[in-house]
Amino acid sequence: MTSASFHPATGPARRTVVAAAGAASLGAVLAACGGSDDDASGDTGTAPSGSPSQEAGGGGSGGGENAGAAGAALAATADIPEGGGKVFPDQKVVVTQPAAGDFKAFSATCTHQGCAVRSVADGLINCPCHNSSFSITDGSVQGGPAPKPLPAVQITVSGDSIRLAG
After folding, report:
1. Which of 46, 70, 74, 68 is nearest to 135 (CA)?
2. Nearest to residue 105, comparing CAs of 145, 46, 18, 160?
3. What letter would DSSP give residue 121?
4. For a designed S-S bond to 97, which of 1, 80, 121, 145 qualifies (C-beta 3.0 to 4.6 A apart)?
């Protein structure tokens, strides 16, 4: 009688495959949670006074997540309430109007852990994940664990149309 001997299959060991998958997942999580230190920390995101057809939002990154939507119409000026704002989840942008005719735009990605901000109320942009809140005027942190302000995003206001600057 012959006993069958066990011959392991060729290829990577199960432990190697599991370790590689775990390392890849960890890398993806860290990349999603990581921030950028190249934000213009001195930039308040305010536009010079003048007509509402000027650029607003200050020095955004000039690309990044929102680059594919450059020049896309976001909303009519009448859609953004004075003293409030509106979140555009598909473009990852929030547009605010702190004062009549003064439009600002910021990234809609919270600087705490990368959650999307969801609402604008009582002069604040609100993140539901850990209750961070940001000023509609300059994106500065007003509450919660967020470590940095929301980065400004450049927009143009022409007539009654608000667009991402290209």
Report:
1. 46
2. 46
3. E
4. 80
25: helix, strand or coil: helix
Q: What angle do CA 137, 34, 61 make, to 5 degrees?
A: 45
- The yes-or-no verdict on residue 51 having pLDDT over 50 is no
Residues forming a β-bridge with 99: 102
**Beta-sheet pairing, 141-143 with 102-107:** unpaired
Hunting for tokens 């290209």 — which residue is that?
166
pLDDT of res. 144: 95
- The whole-number pLDDT of residue 54 equals 36
91-146: pLDDT as tens digits: 999 999 999 999 999 999 999 999 999 999 999 999 999 999 999 999 999 999 99
What's the token pair of residue 122? 């009582």
pTM above 0.85, yes or no: no
Number of Cβ atoms within 10 Å of the Cβ of 127 = 27
Structure tokens at 88: 């555009």
